[in-house]
Sequence to fold (433 residues):
Amino acid sequence: MTLLRREMPKLHGVKKVFDEVHGYIELTEPELAIVDTPTFQRLRYIKQLAVAWYVYPGATHTRFSHSLGVMHVMGLIARRLYSMGYIHSEDDVQLLRLAALLHDVGHTPFSHAIEPYYRDRVGLSHEDLTEMMILESYDIRDTLIDYGFDPREIVMILKGKHKEPLYNQLISSDLDVDRMDYLLRDALHTGVAYGTIDIHRIIATITVDGEGNLALLEKGLDALENFYLARLHMYKAVYYHKTIVGYELLLRRVYERLCEELTGEILFNSVNEITRAIRNGSIHMWNDAWLIGVMMRALERNDVSSYTKELISAFLTRRGYKVLIDRSHFSFSQESTIKDADVEELKRLAEELKVKANVDEVFVFVDDIKIVDTDPRSMPHIVVEGQGSRALSVISNSIINALPRRYHVKRLYVLSLWYERAKKYISKKGVSR
Fold:
């Protein structure tokens, strides 16, 4: 696709938006046009951290503000790399800013709480939905084309398949603009101070090594180490907080049942239904507020089972899943999420609780999260004077070498209604919690 780009002052801001993390963010004409589309405005009504406000009341920030922040950080880094000759033109700086702006446009209501439903049911991740939004929505697609940008090129950057490897790394790598913004933003809104990073030092020392890969100068090492420490703390304190995960699981369970029982609502059950909604514009309503409304209306409907209503009430009144047993831990190696003694024990207990203790809602949650990538090809590199570029993991005096590589989450959740009954049962069996 050959596109003619509108003549305009290069990267000239036409509007300023004040952001609580970065201060004033400038939007160029094509960026403002994208932000004003109904498809992008939908992100105002999708919270960045799904249901984290059940634990951290201030965590009500949105995918909209995060997307603006990622675009801003991308602009700062891309301009620096352009001035150093690693990015080819100001048009490419604008291209990268647009890709950053659109990187989350495909998130479902309540983000990662609902996304697994579509991943498991129809094989769609939020990255797939983002691609569909960019290529199929008339407003975003046509706006990009109108300003001379190829929607498919932006998709290639977001998928990590652009012909320029550096462009892919900026948007998706261990040290990318997405992580730089969400760590700062999520730490601010949750109040988890140890999630804060020194983004200014990172940006000031970012460079490209001799192989064309994103890297940091040696004087940025401390800031990079703090970046990894912040990630570790945020995974434990926020992203995999036991109560937050419990409410995400409950909301997912509610959504599954509503998709089975309700008709006449925007509860998509196939790729074709989602594609049709993107093309006709009804996808704009698919957000957190809409889902809360569906749940509220479901409580009054005769075609919704009493059990589903019970789960909805549990969610709305904060009486969700509670952790009965937690076997989570950090380690230096990957562990199986299936063939594992702890996981097998939790699954066995879950079945016993359902049958012998008459407990209906029991959920085994298992995940294996990468904290530090041990592959030297994937880790950020440090440019050491006189020694070239070296992977962070092989720098002997780096504290990264002392950090655990994985966070293994293994929990047995029980709905609050049956928590005491379940606790008594495992206590009689002598199971440690």
Notes: Residues 63-83 form the longest helix (21 residues).
